[in-house]
Amino acid sequence: MKQIKTIIWIAIPVVLCLFSTASTAQDATEIIKKADQKWNGEKSSRGQMTMTIVRPEWKRTIVFKVWTLGDAYSMTLITKPAKEAGQTFLKREKEMWNWMPSIGRMIKLPPSMMGDGWMGSDYTNDDILKESSMVTDFVHTIIKEETIDEIPCWVIEMKPKEDAAIVWGKVVKWISKDEEYLMLKSTYYDEDDILVKTEYGKEIKDIGGRKLPTRIEIIPAEKDNQKTILITNEIEFNIPIKSGFFSQQQMKRLRK
């Protein structure tokens, strides 16, 4: 009987530990899901954004519109500068395309290009086209809690699942602990666990019927005087839009 009691007392902490780990993992995934829905919209979205690419010797600005439907569809139309206006990017399920009206050519983007900088910026093609899902393609773990600009945050480590086509070795996100689930900071690492870039969410405002950071700054590691700034000028969520909108024919029809 004494042996049985000893086994029980040893087993209880182990079981509680396993339960606690499973619960934390579930909580972390739920937090990421709510943060993702907050930014991308539960069903669909439409927005207009301004991106400024800053380099040591030059700076340029790109204005574009974007439409999304769930995780499977997205369309991005460049409206400025005039030289690149009309260029369109499409993600439809697992296929990605780029329409270049200046040369009348449709280009299919291979998965190997997802880690490349979009339009020469510090955003990747994957950031813009959303090939990967931060909810379903990663394993999430709460690793600590920190405060950013006096806002308490969960710090969640995201590691790619084995079968996911992810360009990062891991991603760490700081998400506000209030009901807003704001993504205030993200760090991106390569497969050797070396920091590649840091992303900051700033200028929190009410926009599109919800509170969001309207200014995103991406700062690459070990590159002085270089960054990309993304300003959300306007955005609507859960708009009526069908999957048929996301087609190669529509890419050619879109106008600024």
Automatic annotation (TrEMBL):
UniProt key word Cell membrane: no
CDD domains per the UniProt record, alphabetical: LolA_like
Uncharacterized protein TP-0789 domain residues: 70-253
Transit peptide as UniProt keyword: no
Range of residues in the leader sequence: 1-25
Top-level taxon: Bacteria
Keyword terms, alphabetized: Lipoprotein, Signal
PANTHER family, per the entry: SPORULATION PROTEIN YDCC
Protein name: Outer membrane lipoprotein-sorting protein
Organism: Aquimarina hainanensis
High-level lineage: Bacteria, Pseudomonadati, Bacteroidota, Flavobacteriia, Flavobacteriales
